[in-house]
């Protein structure tokens, strides 16, 4: 890889770290950046999961008061997440690279659309779907999202954020804190599994790893004042662009 490739990936990681700590969607930037430097789709996806781990982890201390306030919610939630994440890893190993590559454009498009509608889903469910708010259906959906998290991951953070809000986390910051913890657990598990499996590419990982950690360290502070509507519009527009590009490749 050239110096320009490293700088390009560093910039993508910085942007992804800021966006992930504020809301979600950072992988919409790092995944195509890794493809542009020559990685295969499965290498780009697994390396992105590994590289964004510090971005999620670095945002956790900023939200620790919110984590402590909702600590009673975490034991059941984390059991569901770990189980789903493990199934997602096994699923990717089982389906293999060819099946995964054929699904990627659809996965990116679906992730972008889910990202776009998740606030509306959140508002509707909070008023009309108490099985999501108080019952087991909400946990089942988080379980499915955890499978997707370690299978591909793009866009899933915002869906998790919406579900945590539906499940009764008291405000946006508390839900975002939970989202960062769930994403950290999933990406750590994916890093270990796909690193051992030989899919994670360590040279392109490093600049994104560094960039996402630095970006998230500042992004957690930005989250308390950033205009989220503008950020979401930017992420959605770029996600649609990436999906279109992948369909045309």
Structure commentary:
α8 packs antiparallel against α9. The longest helix is centred in the middle third of the chain and has 55 residues, at 74-128. The mean pLDDT is 83. The chain is mainly α. It has one domain (3-248). The protein starts with a helix and ends with a helix. It has helices spanning 3-22, 27-36, 41-51, 53-59, 64-69, 74-128, 130-133, 136-151, 156-166, 172-197, 202-222, 228-248.
Quick rundown:
By secondary structure, the protein is mostly helical. The protein has helices spanning 3-22, 27-36, 41-51, 53-59, 64-69, 74-128, 130-133, 136-151, 156-166, 172-197, 202-222, 228-248.
Average of per-residue pLDDT values: 83
Major β-sheet, in short?
A: none
DSSP E strands, number: 0
Q: Can you tell me the number of structural domains?
A: 1
Low-pLDDT sequence parts: none
Q: Provide the gyration radius in Å.
A: 17 Å
Note the total helix count. 12
Key attributes of the depicted protein:
249 residues, globular, mainly alpha, 0% strand
């Amino acid at each position: 890889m050239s110096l320009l490739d490293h700088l390009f990936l560093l910039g993508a990681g910085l942007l992804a770290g800021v966006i992930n700590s504020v809301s979600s969607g950072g992988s919409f930037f790092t995944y195509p950046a890794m493809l542009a430097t020559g990685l295969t789709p499965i290498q780009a996806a697994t390396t992105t999961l590994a590289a964004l781990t510090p971005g999620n982890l670095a945002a956790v201390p900023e939200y620790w008061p919110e984590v402590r306030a909702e600590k009673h919610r975490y034991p059941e939630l984390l059991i569901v997440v770990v189980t789903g994440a493990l199934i997602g890893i096994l699923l990717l190993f089982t389906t293999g690279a060819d099946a995964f590559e054929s699904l990627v454009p659809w996965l990116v498009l679906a992730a972008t659309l889910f990202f776009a509608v998740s606030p509306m889903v959140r508002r509707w469910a909070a008023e009309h779907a108490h099985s999501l708010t108080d019952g087991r259906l909400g946990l089942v959906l988080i379980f499915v999202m955890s499978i997707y998290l370690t299978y591909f991951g793009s866009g899933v953070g915002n869906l998790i954020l919406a579900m945590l809000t539906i499940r009764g986390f008291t405000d946006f910051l508390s839900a975002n804190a939970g989202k960062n913890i769930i994403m950290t657990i999933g990406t750590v598990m994916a890093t270990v599994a796909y690193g051992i499996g030989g899919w994670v590419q360590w040279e392109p990982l490093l600049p994104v790893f560094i960039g996402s950690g630095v970006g998230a360290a500042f992004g957690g502070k930005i989250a308390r004042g950033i205009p989220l509507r503008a950020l979401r519009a930017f992420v959605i527009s770029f996600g649609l662009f990436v999906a279109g590009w992948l369909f045309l490749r």
